[in-house]
């Protein structure tokens, strides 16, 4: 088996010892998936998990490619949307995988956005006490964030992603061609996670994004590839140092504690996509940092100006809702976050663009007062 990168494909390594894997980035990967999986992962028949939207566009090409390489055990199409990430869907999915005769040497292939990657990865983590899986992320958000790093799981009435497992994929195929059919709103929402990498750790990349956001959002091939590769490389480096989020990996949650509260408030509906919540959350994190004198004046304005120019929401009042939550309710919703420890919220704040840090030093009273000012 050759481990040489194929021509025309960019490769990012995620170095995790025996759980190491590659992220391949480039065009035409879905149609070549069978051969690439055989080359990088090895033998095994595939079971594909997708959703109705993505499946209609890409399942036939993927199945054909898998069939002609290692073989296909079957495929299942789940309903599209965040609501699919729940226990009853997981139960059914595990049943489909087992009924298809998937064995320990086989693999689950997740073809879709973050929802499909999360639930298919979790099913792969638990059926037969774990089978290998391959991520084929089809949204920008999934390509730059959720498909890399091994977080898998589902939502429960208590909150988002509260049941799950770390289960690293064996390969990630980020096919940049499939982004051409992604709805513009989802492209923008994924872009928020791209901007996150610049904001949390790479000021030069953020500067590049300020100049090139239009090219990324209109899917100019070289710009999209660079944005995906730089984002994935940053994520891979952080995950390699802190696989199970004992410390540094929490930086990847910049904007997420606020964002998850907004998502909970809008009922995880189409009124606010995850990336949109992250966009508002990152602006709040920078405004809170500025209000506490942690980062220089005008930094937060630079962040929100860029995200607004990219077509993203930047304020709580941008959320489509009849009534905003009051600040106490907002803080209560933030308290559902996984990152609460000893009742203390964890925040990712910033000293400047490209330098985020983790803190548990912000009291609930201070956040409540800050949010009261934001809600107005
Ligand atoms: N999406 C944040 C992480 O993977 O850690």
From the structure above, extract its key features.
alpha/beta, Rossmann fold, 7-stranded mixed sheet, about 375 residues, two-stranded antiparallel sheet, binds glycine, Dehydroquinate synthase-like, alpha domain, globular
Can you describe this structure?
With 376 residues, the chain is of the alpha/beta class. It folds into 2 domains: 10-181, 3-Layer(aba) Sandwich (Rossmann fold), CATH 3.40.50.1970; 184-375, Dehydroquinate synthase-like, alpha domain (Up-down Bundle), CATH 1.20.1090. It is built from 13 helices and 11 strands. The chain has helices spanning 33-40, 52-68, 87-99, 114-126, 140-146, 184-201, 203-217, 221-241, 256-265, 274-291, 299-309, 327-334, 364-375, and strands at 10-14, 21-26, 46-51, 72-78, 107-112, 132-137, 151-156, 159-166, 171-175, 347-352, 355-359. The strands form 3 sheets. Strands 1-2-9-6-5-3-4 form a 7-stranded mixed sheet, with helices on both faces. A two-stranded antiparallel ribbon has the order 7-8. Strands 10-11 form a two-stranded antiparallel ribbon. Helix 6 packs parallel to helix 10 (274-291). The mean pLDDT is 94. Residues 145, 149, 151, 249, 252-253 line the site of glycine.
């Amino acid at each position: 088996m050759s481990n040489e990168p194929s021509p025309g494909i960019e490769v990012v390594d995620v170095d995790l010892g025996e759980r190491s894997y590659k992220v391949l980035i480039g065009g035409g990967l879905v149609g070549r998936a069978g051969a690439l999986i055989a080359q990088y992962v090895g033998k095994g028949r595939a079971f594909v998990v997708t959703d109705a939207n993505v499946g209609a566009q890409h399942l036939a090409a993927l199945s054909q490619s898998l069939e002609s390489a290692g073989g296909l055990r079957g495929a299942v199409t789940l309903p599209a949307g965040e609501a699919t990430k729940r226990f009853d869907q997981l139960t059914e999915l595990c049943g489909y995988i087992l009924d298809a005769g998937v064995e320990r040497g086989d693999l689950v292939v997740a073809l879709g956005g973050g929802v499909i990657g999360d639930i298919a990865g979790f099913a792969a983590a638990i059926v037969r006490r774990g089978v290998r899986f391959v991520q084929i992320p089809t949204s920008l958000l999934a390509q730059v964030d959720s498909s890399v790093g091994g977080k898998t799981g589902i939502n429960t009435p208590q909150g988002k992603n509260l049941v799950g497992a770390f289960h690293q994929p064996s390969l990630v195929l980020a096919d940049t061609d499939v982004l051409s059919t992604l709805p513009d709103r989802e492209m923008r929402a994924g872009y928020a996670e791209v901007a996150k990498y610049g904001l949390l750790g790479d000021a030069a990349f953020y500067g590049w994004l300020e100049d090139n956001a239009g090219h990324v959002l209109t899917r100019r091939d070289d710009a999209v590839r660079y944005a995906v590769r730089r984002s994935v490389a940053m994520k891979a480096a952080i995950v390699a140092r802190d696989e199970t989020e004992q410390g540094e990996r929490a930086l990847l949650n910049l904007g997420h504690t606020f964002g998850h509260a907004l998502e909970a408030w809008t009922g995880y509906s189409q009124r606010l996509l995850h990336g949109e919540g992250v966009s508002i959350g990152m602006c709040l994190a920078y405004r809170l940092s500025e209000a506490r004198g942690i980062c220089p004046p005008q930094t937060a304005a630079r962040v929100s100006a860029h995200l607004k120019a990219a077509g993203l929401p930047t304020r709580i009042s941008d959320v489509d809702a009849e009534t905003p939550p009051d600040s106490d309710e907002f803080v209560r919703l933030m308290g559902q976050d996984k990152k609460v420890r000893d009742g203390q919220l964890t925040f990712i704040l910033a000293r400047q663009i490209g330098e985020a840090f983790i803190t548990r030093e912000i009291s609930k009273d201070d956040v409540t007062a800050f949010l009261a000012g934001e809600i107005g």
